[in-house]
Each structure stands twice: as structure tokens, then as C-alpha cells.
Amino acid sequence: MEMTVTQEGDRRLVLACSGRMGWDERDELPQRISGMLSQAERPQVLMDFEAVDFVNSAGIGALFHLSQLLQKRNGTLILAQVPPSLANLFATVGLDRRIRITDTLDDARAALDALE
Asked: What is the largest CA-CA distance in the chain?
């Protein structure tokens, strides 16, 4: 999976993701993000899934793991613009009950702003 990372403020990362999310992200994603936000209090991560076309079980595991890491630091993970096929998959495995999913990036930013 390709990711373009933009930092907004001192504790928010926006990840524009594209391609396939799988085995490579299983360990790399949580480590990479926690390293980028190592000094942030209540870190916030917004992942834009608009251009993601495939997620396997390892990718789902990476998202669960990242969510757990952020929650331990009183942080938040939000997924935005998830394609319908992936939204159905996430609902089937219960990911949508653990991680908030929004329709737009603006909705995700508003949700994160409300937490401040």
C-alpha cells in the first residue's frame, strides 16, 4: 500500500492511502505511525481509504493493532472515504465497531476537532 503522510498540527496525521493493504502493513503500519507520533499527547490518525481497493486479514489486523496502540495513548483512529466493498468487509469483521468510519475527510476532521 502506498501512503502519503501529512501532519496537521502537533498530534494529527492524515494518511492518503492507495492500493492494496496486506501483509506488508501488518507490522509496519503500527510501528511507523507510533514512531511519527511518539511525542504527541492524544494522537489522532485519519486514514483516507478512497483509493484503497483491497484489504486482507493482515491489513485488518494492522488496523486493529494501530487502533489499540492509539487507544493506549488516549488517541483516535478514523477511516474516511472507505469504498462500499471495504465498508461491507469492515462491518462483517466488526472493525466498524472499533474504529470510526466517516463518509468524507471533512466529517473525519470535524469528529477529531470535537475531541479537542
From this structure: 36
Q: What is the pTM of this model?
A: 0.93
Q: pLDDT for 27-64, tens place per residue?
A: 888 888 878 887 788 999 999 999 999 999 999 999 99
Residues 6+ apart with CB under 8 A from 42: 11, 73, 74, 75, 76, 115
Alpha-carbon dihedral angle through residues 75, 67, 59, 107, given to the nearest 10 degrees: -60
Lateral strand order in the sheet of 76-80: 2-8, 12-21, 44-55, 76-80, 100-102
Type and span of the H or E element at 55: strand 44-55
C-alpha of 94 from chain center:
15
**Structure-model confidence comparison of residues 65 and 36, the more confident one:** 65
CA triple 50-8-20, angle to 5 deg = 25
What structural domains does the chain harbor? 2-115 (3.30.750.24)
